[in-house]
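Cross-posted from the bioinformatics board.
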Amino acid sequence: MSGPAPAARPAGVPANALSRYALRLGDLPLILGQRLGEWVGHAPVLEEDLGLANLALDLIGQARLLLSYAGEVEGEGRTEDDLAFLRDPGEYLNPTLVEQPNGDFGETIVRQVLVDAFQLPLYEGLMGSADKHIAAIAAKAVKETRYHLRYSSSWMVRLGDGTPESHARVQGSLNRLWRYTVEFFEEDDLDRDMAARGVAPRLANVRAAWLTSIDEILAEATLARPGEVPYSWFGKRGEHSEHLGYILSDLQYLQRAHPGARW
Amino acid sequence: MSVPSPIPQHRREPGACATTPETDARIAAAWNALAGVEDPEIPALNIVELGIVRFAEVRADGVLGIGLSPTYTGCPATEYIEALVREALDAACMSPFAITRVLVPAWTSDWISEEGRRKLADFGIVPPPAAASVGRRANTAPIGCPRCRSTNTECISQFGSTPCKSLHRCRACLEPFECFKCI
């Protein structure tokens, strides 16, 4: 299998920054996919079991492409597997939201809506990336993400605009998880650098699109958007909640206990 | 057989050379071999009909280049299909060849050939509704039951037994059925 031609990379972008940015993009679907996988065999009904497993599958597919590219740009011979199975929590750059526990089905749906509505404009922006390989991955992922948002938002509407019990539960989940969305849009040096070089979209633009679709979904679901949050988590800089360590102990156990094990 | 070409030939390998009768024959033989590779999840379709073979060409260095696109990024069959293609090309004595994974433009269900759509329907899977929808709203065109042709059907789940299918039920004949997702 031949990889992307080096010509796909924009000139002058430092390899370590580009690699770190690709990791940041790829760790989100990797950790969320792993989390969603916990539902397999446990969802309320068989159809949703399949639905969540399918979301997980797409997300891990996206993660594989992005992690492979991160390793390739880094140029130290690390593969997607090395990056997924042999990094410590502080080296993971996923936003803190995706590592939060699944909670009940409604909480999983709330988390999914918040993430899908973020990934959609992010990937749409990345389709125009100066990095042609990232643009190609985004063009593929954007189609899957649209389908994901359709699934998650339809459930949010059903639960929010459902019974008093389902409404109260998803509103509670929304209030609990909302604080973790702040970091999606907090630009740091890496985000600014990548945007300035045309690799990444401006997060302010992504936020505007995100908020528009979130408000539309919440209105239809008869849910209230929570207020501003005073401070943020920064999983995307490697500062995680306690939950990531537990996920990684599941995800990495086999490769840590039996290095190099293969099917 | 004639070479089906539902897919835009969007790019040439930089090393691709001008075609000669000899390379044309080799490319035609390659398409023939590829048309013998079944989709492992939907054996009614071969990978050419599925629209995932993006190009077959002979490069300047004599290597036969084959481009394949995944239907979904996480499709577990992607690597298996590549292995099947390798086997088929080996069996047809097509070496040397190289397989490239092509992401752009991304595969869409619109690329399933007419023949492929007919075979899907005969197999009991509803072919994807015409044009890929874009918004958050699902494509609302009614989906016809593959058995009794009634359009009085409902979607049970947006996800089915494989990443590429959704689950439906016919309210007329009460049979469940699958539909190829439109992306």
